[in-house]
Design a protein that fits this description.
The structure holds 2 protein chains of 2 kinds.
Chain A lengths: L40 H4 L1 H31 L5 E4 L3 E4 H27 L17 H18 L5 H13 L4 H6 L20 E3 L16 E6 L2 H8 L3 H5 L2 E5 L18 E5 L11 E3 L4 E3 L6 E3 L5 E4 L11 E3 L5 E3 L16
Antiparallel strand pairs in A: 1-2, 3-4, 4-5, 5-6, 7-8, 8-9, 9-10, 11-12
Helix pairs in contact in A: 2-3
Chain B lengths: L1 H17 L4 H7 L2 H14 L1 H4 L16 H10 L21 H14 L18 H11 L1 H4 L6 E2 L5 E2 L7 H10 L14 H14 L15 H24 L4
Antiparallel strand pairs in B: 1-2
Helix pairs in contact in B: 2-6, 3-6, 5-6, 5-9, 7-10, 9-10
Classes of the chains: A alpha+beta, B mainly alpha.
Chain lengths: 352, 248
């Protein structure tokens, strides 16, 4: 405190030993410590104040006119008209003018309010005292006394049976919620553990649903595929639940390049079939690098080595990409040997 | 290698069944003179890495069976000859004339059957289905090349290039041959018609105007987020400072 001088007006420096206490029990702030108030031009010159009044009103009038202009633009600018705006480039005229008009309108209302507050509203610093939270000792004693009287009068301590049953009733209240929780929906059951893939299910290309022969897929090839029964299943169920679980990718590499698979003979002549659903949070994953055999997920950069049993080599995924065992049917088309041997996609609570 | 050959022969066979020209036809049509010219150019510019007989080396893959389309794509986009070994072959100004590229392609095609350079008839986009092309693009291409073909990052320094300036022929050749890390989309998995649908989509979407104005590279949330954080938040801070400034 040595470098702070006593202002010498009878008020000691805050923080020193004796502090005079104000009306509300807080130390007074010395007048000299407040910033000096310089009057603004609008405080002394009535013409300046009138001018600012007109400026603020003009900004607010713009706030009235722009919504009308917005409405006219909405009606009269053709939706498909494109204009060339400097810096921004070719832009939809409708979007550009609607946004510009709305931006100007909202900005002018805000700017008017700020201008008003800064130029015309009082700008004198006001000190608001901070009050202590603690009540007086008298009030505190009264409160305790009232509580004790209430306890005594209600007989909460005297009538044991009432007290215990009330506590019991309160404890039982959460039981109301239990049946309601059940209504949150049926349990998922086995739904997350199985997909449409089954023994003999044909592997068809996504979008065009063409069945594939081994010869169709070159070394270094990648095909996004779904089970052949998916379109019919979607029509029947009316939802895309199966489309969220069953997509797979087919990749082909030289058999000698396959270091490891998730099961013996799960490939067909170097064609490997892996789930397309990332084991981290379930993004569709098809960024396949044909030279390194790495499969990259675009969401969080989980990287799987498809030549090494789908092992995770980078990123947050905790499990290898599930492999689907495949073979060919009597007509030579690629089919699944069975369903996936583990649930596909992200982990879930009951997965174990 | 045998399998690759079998697959490529199978692809070529299917191809010739669907179209009049084929890998075999092109290689047999190419004159012996063109092939010998191509071999000369190959020995001068390519053999250091790819070997005297294009058999490949520790630094470069074999070119036997890659086909004329691969040569036309790699040399025609300036990726080859390589400036320096790296994760990706970068595009550079093309240093060979189209005649020289055709000669190189004819020589490589004479080494083993592979995908041929698509003819102008094969690249005729009339009657293509833009909407189907969009679906196929989003299923097969967008994961690496971005929804508008702007390209994107892959793992460990590799990247998928922007395809907004690629010609229909280059797009077709890339699908057919799978350059760099790109998988091969042979005619058995994407039919020639489907390839043309995809090319129609790519060449259409690149010329679409941006209704919102500044496209910010059409990269989605990365550049848009950066713009909002820097320009948008900067404007908000500027206004906040203006609100706080005292007036006289």
């Amino acid at each position: 405190m040595t470098d702070v001088e006593d202002p010498g007006d009878g008020h000691p420096v805050p923080g020193s030993q004796v502090e005079p206490v104000g009306a509300h029990g807080t130390p007074d702030i010395p007048e000299s410590r407040l910033p000096v108030h310089h009057p603004r031009r609008t405080d002394i010159d009535p013409r300046a104040a009138r001018r600012v009044e007109r400026q603020v009103s003009l900004l607010f009038v713009i706030g009235i006119l722009t919504p009308i202009a917005f409405w006219l633009e909405y009606v009269y600018i053709p939706r498909d008209k494109v204009i060339n705006v400097p810096v921004i480039g070719p832009t939809s005229a409708s979007n550009f003018f609607l946004g510009l008009t709305m931006g100007i309108g909202l900005f002018c209302v805000g700017a008017g309010a700020i201008h008003w507050a800064k130029k015309l509203m009082p700008d004198v610093e006001e000190v608001a005292d901070r009050h202590p939270f603690r009540g007086t000792d008298e009030d505190r004693a009264t409160a305790v006394q009232l509580f004790e009287e209430g306890t005594e009068n209600s007989g909460f301590l005297r009538y044991k049976m009432i007290r215990r049953t009330l506590i019991g009733a309160l404890a039982a209240t959460p039981l109301f919620a239990l049946p309601l929780l059940k209504d949150l929906g049926p349990m998922p059951g086995n739904f997350l553990r199985y997909t449409l893939w089954k023994k003999g299910e044909r592997i068809v290309t996504d979008v065009s649903y063409q069945p594939l022969r081994a010869v169709d897929i070159p070394i270094g090839g990648l095909v996004s595929c779904v089970p052949a029964s998916l379109p019919a299943e979607q029509d029947a169920s009316g939802n895309q639940n199966e489309a969220a679980k069953s997509p797979v990718i087919l990749v082909r590499m030289r058999p000698a390049e396959i270091k490891k698979q998730q099961g013996a003979n799960w490939d067909y002549e170097g064609i490997l079939c892996y789930s397309k659903i990332c084991t981290h949070v379930g993004c569709p994953t098809a960024l396949y690098e044909q030279k390194t055999h790495q499969l990259l997920c675009p969401c969080h950069q989980s990287t799987f080595d498809l030549s090494d049993a789908g092992r995770v080599i980078f990123g947050p995924a905790a499990r290898a990409m599930p492999q689907l065992p495949i073979t060919v049917d009597s007509e030579g088309y690629l089919v699944a040997q069975s369903d996936f041997h583990q649930p596909v996609g992200p982990s879930f609570w009951e997965r174990g | 290698m045998v399998l690759l050959f079998a697959a490529l022969v199978g692809t070529g066979g299917l191809y010739s069944a669907l179209t009049s020209t084929s890998a075999q036809a092109t290689s047999s049509d190419a004159s012996a003179q063109e092939i010998s010219h191509g071999r000369q150019l190959f020995l001068e510019g390519c053999a250091t890495c790819h070997g005297l007989n294009a058999q490949g080396s520790a630094n470069a893959p074999t070119l036997i069976g890659v086909g004329a389309a691969a040569v036309d794509f790699q040399v025609g986009t300036g990726r080859m000859p390589l400036a320096r070994p790296g994760t990706e072959a970068e595009t550079k100004p093309v240093i060979y004339t189209q005649t020289e590229i055709d000669a190189l392609a004819a020589y490589v095609a004479s080494l083993g059957a592979g995908p041929a350079i698509p003819s102008d008839d094969q690249l005729d986009l009339t009657g293509t289905n833009l909407q189907r092309g969009g679906e196929l693009f989003r299923t097969n291409c967008a994961q690496c090349h971005n929804f508008a073909g702007e390209g994107g990052a892959l793992a460990f320094g590799a990247y998928a290039p922007s395809i907004t300036t690629a010609t229909p022929k280059q797009l077709y050749e890339a699908m057919l041959t799978g350059p760099e890390q790109m998988p091969v989309f042979a005619d058995g998995t994407l039919t020639p018609q489907q390839k043309l649908d995809i090319i129609k989509f790519i060449t259409t979407v690149r010329n679409e105007p941006n209704p919102g104005g500044l496209a910010l590279g059409r990269l989605g949330p990365v550049t848009e987020g950066l713009f909002v954080w820097v320009v948008g938040l900067g404007a908000v801070i500027a206004v906040a400072i203006w609100i706080g400034v005292k007036v006289s």
